[in-house]
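A.,

Following up on our hallway conversation. Structure tokens first:
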């Protein structure tokens, strides 16, 4: 089976990733579950041959030097794929990520409506956090598309690689791919302000320099958006702080507090109908949240979020609970993805018990609510 055939199966069956490793059959991930594409294990040299076919001369030289290679390929009538080639046990391995080029509409993703206000902000910093394969890029693409359709301006993206290709609509969108349109993230970031942007999307914050650029963009009147690998807002804050030496952290927290518009964290959970849905945690940069960040009081952030649901904030556990109540996901799926499994399990238990009491009251004619006469009887 050739690479093209395997990628065609991946695209046609809505798979996310293809895995090629010596000694194992080609495998792919569909809706979060792994399954083999055939029964024939890949022999020594098979993956190296496949990798050599998709790399040009310069990429082959770079791979021989670094033993790592990232690239993107487009196959007509099939799709676009992000490829990572690496070595393990002295054999070449390959992982291909299916990049869905059709930009999903915000409404179809069923994301919290408050995000539409966030993406239309004039300035500030918005960070999307989550693990690999959590759907961050998909959600961001839908939000950028919403802004593009509803606001004029100049949007610049710096990505590695470009995943979703946007059309110029009300805004002009320039998408720069690292290794194709610019030598590096840092080279592109240094020149971004000269390109008079309104919105700057940085594919991923991986180090201190990129974080410094994101803060500088937001401080100078731009909306800076990026992603970060972390499980939730608290973990993301810890990771950002660890980019910087001890003596610079007070200034960092002050800058972050002044410019933060939102931390958006998400995880993909399996739905009862066999699909997947994003469970989303949102921490908005309200006056209270900004002050707590400046003081480094991260331990109390979740408590504030839980009390600020009316403003659009939500914790992961609350988002998961709501999905259980709506019948979108099973209880065990919610508990498995919770930040505090015990607390969420207890919350679901109390909700179920309350529902049973209500059902029992309806069936017998008894009710815990006072009657009209009882309401007026004060003695």
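Then the amino acids I'd put at each of the 379 positions:
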């Amino acid at each position: 089976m050739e690479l093209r055939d395997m990628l065609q199966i991946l695209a046609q069956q809505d798979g996310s990733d293809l895995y090629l490793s010596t000694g194992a059959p080609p495998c792919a991930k569909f809706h979060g579950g792994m399954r083999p594409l055939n029964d024939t294990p890949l022999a020594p040299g098979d993956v190296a041959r496949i990798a050599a076919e998709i790399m040009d001369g310069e990429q082959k030289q770079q791979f021989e030097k670094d033993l790592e290679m990232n690239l993107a390929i487009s196959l007509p009538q099939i799709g676009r794929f992000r490829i990572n080639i690496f070595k393990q046990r002295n054999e070449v391995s390959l992982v291909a990520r299916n990049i869905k080029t059709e930009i999903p509409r915000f409404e179809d993703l069923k994301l919290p409506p408050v995000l539409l206000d966030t993406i239309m902000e004039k300035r500030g910093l918005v960070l999307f956090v989550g693990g690999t394969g959590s759907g961050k890029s998909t959600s961001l693409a839908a939000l950028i598309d919403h802004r593009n359709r509803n606001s004029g301006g100049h949007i610049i993206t710096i990505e590695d690689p470009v995943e979703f290709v946007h059309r110029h609509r009300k805004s002009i969108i320039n998408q720069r791919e690292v290794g194709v349109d610019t030598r590096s993230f840092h080279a592109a970031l240094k020149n971004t302000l000269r390109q008079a942007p309104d919105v700057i999307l940085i594919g991923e914050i991986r180090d201190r320099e990129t974080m410094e650029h994101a803060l500088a963009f937001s401080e100078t009147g731009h909306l800076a958006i990026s992603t970060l690998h972390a499980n939730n807002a608290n973990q993301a804050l810890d990771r950002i702080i660890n980019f910087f030496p001890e003596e610079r952290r007070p200034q960092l927290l002050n800058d972050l507090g002044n410019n933060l518009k939102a931390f958006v964290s998400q995880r993909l959970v399996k739905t009862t109908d066999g699909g997947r849905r994003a469970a989303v945690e949102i921490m908005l940069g309200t006056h209270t949240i900004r002050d707590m960040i400046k003081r480094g009081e991260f331990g109390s952030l979740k408590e504030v979020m839980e009390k600020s649901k009316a403003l659009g904030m939500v914790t992961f556990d609350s988002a998961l609970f709501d999905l259980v109540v709506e019948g979108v996901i099973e209880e065990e799926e919610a508990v498995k993805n919770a930040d505090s499994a015990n607390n969420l399990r207890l919350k679901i238990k109390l909700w179920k018990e309350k529902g049973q009491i209500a059902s029992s009251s309806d069936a017998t004619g008894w009710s815990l609510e006072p009657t009209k006469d009882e309401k007026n009887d004060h003695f």
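The two ends are 83 Å apart (CA to CA). Curious whether your intuition agrees with the design.

B.
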